[in-house]
């Protein structure tokens, strides 16, 4: 693979091979299962570059090679969703009788997976305070195989000290997994900082247009063989159409993230001035509890943030969101558009406790003009105040 000095050039040129596709710059969509062999001998010896659609094709190979370079990884695999990427990373290195440490602020479906599927598979799980850093050593057991991190964490956006956790983990021959969807390799070079398995819900910023569902896992040298083998044996496959949309989105990742970062910072600072707001959770703000960690390890911030309202009725919080015209109410994030939703961290915490009385509102700040988004939120707060109680 050709090496690129700067990441912007890598994003624009990685995996582009016009000479392989009749001069077309973009890799065509290769839909197919069967690949024909010219002879029995060539099939028996597997001489061809492509032998079966599920195993590889020019579409999937273009994306995996580009992401491998972007991540600085030994290899990358594709999964049909972000959650599938998370569970694939875990199960590639943890099995029956093993102990897995999970940050208490993770994406809630991972908690459900560990408590239901993981338990049925005989995996022992312990949830830990995500801000513990090197103190993770106190949670290690002889059968601990992996530490799962998510930085920043879902909903409340705590930043973890990944280098400190990785140092402890590697001293005990334990692997580190991280969900790096928020920062992406552009803003958080996770493998460089000691992570062994780096996950992205490519549905979010890699695709970038809210029109495909996809997950990726990139591995360090020590984790690659296990990941590659497990992924193959599980028969995991990503649609060539979704892969092509991800390749398209990846080309503009840098410029989109720059706008998300700028817009979200503007909105977050404005939210801090509002009387209706109890707290704003966005690592790029100096008020964030782990701001210095973010500043040390991250090169930027994405468009996802949360804030907590002052205590109010549920009707007031609903009115705030229901009245918004530029923010859609919906799951997911990472697309060009702004989104809003109300969430409650209480039911998805066990090692830490959520004791704030206000309503937590998660926002994804899109590519719109931030002044328009602020104006929309202003009228939302006006509705909120009428029903605040």
From TrEMBL:
Pathway: Amino-acid biosynthesis; L-methionine biosynthesis via de novo pathway; L-homocysteine from L-cystathionine: step 1/1. One of its GO terms (molecular function) is lyase activity. Belongs to the trans-sulfuration enzymes family. Gene3D superfamilies: Aspartate Aminotransferase, domain 1, Type I PLP-dependent aspartate aminotransferase-like (Major domain). InterPro entries: Cys/Met-Metab_PyrdxlP-dep_enz (IPR000277), Cys_b_lyase_bac (IPR006233), Cys_met_metab_PP (IPR054542), PyrdxlP-dep_Trfase (IPR015424), PyrdxlP-dep_Trfase_major (IPR015421), PyrdxlP-dep_Trfase_small (IPR015422). This is Cystathionine beta-lyase. Coiled coil: none annotated. It comes from the Bacteria. Its EC number is 4.4.1.8. It comes from Pseudomonas qingdaonensis. Pfam families: Cys_Met_Meta_PP (PF01053). Keywords: Lyase, Pyridoxal phosphate.
């Amino acid at each position: 693979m050709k090496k690129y000095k700067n990441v912007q050039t890598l994003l624009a040129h990685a995996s582009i091979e016009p000479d392989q596709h009749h001069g077309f710059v973009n890799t065509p969509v290769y839909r197919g299962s069967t690949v024909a062999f010219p002879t029995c001998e060539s099939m028996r010896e597997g001489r061809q570059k492509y032998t079966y659609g599920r195993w590889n094709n020019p579409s999937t190979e273009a994306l995996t090679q580009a992401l491998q370079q972007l991540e600085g990884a030994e290899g990358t695999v594709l999964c049909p969703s972000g959650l599938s990427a998370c569970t694939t990373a875990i199960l590639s290195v943890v099995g029956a009788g093993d102990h897995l440490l999970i940050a208490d602020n993770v994406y809630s479906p991972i908690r459900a997976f560990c408590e239901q599927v993981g338990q049925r598979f005989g995996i022992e799980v312990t949830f830990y305070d995500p801000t513990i850093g090197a103190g993770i050593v106190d949670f290690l057991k002889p059968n601990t195989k992996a530490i799962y991190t998510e930085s920043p964490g879902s909903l409340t956006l705590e930043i973890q000290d990944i280098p400190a956790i990785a140092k402890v983990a590697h001293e005990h021959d334990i692997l580190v997994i991280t969900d790096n969807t928020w920062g992406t390799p552009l803003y958080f070079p996770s493998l460089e900082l000691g992570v062994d398995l780096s996950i992205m819900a490519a549905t979010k910023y890699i695709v970038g247009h809210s029109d495909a569902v996809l997950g990726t896992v990139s591995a360090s040298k020590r984790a690659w063989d296990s990941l590659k083998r497990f992924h193959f044996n599980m028969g995991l496959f990503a649609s060539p159409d979704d892969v092509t949309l991800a390749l398209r989105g990846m080309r503009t990742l840098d410029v989109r993230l720059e706008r998300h970062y700028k817009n979200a910072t503007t909105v977050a600072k404005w939210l801090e001035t509002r009387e209706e707001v109890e707290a704003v959770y966005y690592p790029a703000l100096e008020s964030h509890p782990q701001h210095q960690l973010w500043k040390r390890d991250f090169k930027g911030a994405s468009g996802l943030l949360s804030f907590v309202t002052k205590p109010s009725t549920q009707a007031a919080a609903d009115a705030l969101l229901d009245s918004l015209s530029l923010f859609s109410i919906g799951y997911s994030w990472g697309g060009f558009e702004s989104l809003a939703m109300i969430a409650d961290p209480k039911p998805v915490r066990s090692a830490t406790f959520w004791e704030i009385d206000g309503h937590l509102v998660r926002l994804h700040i899109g590519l719109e003009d931030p002044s328009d988004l602020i104006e929309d939120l202003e009228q939302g707060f006006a509705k909120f105040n009428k029903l605040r109680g």
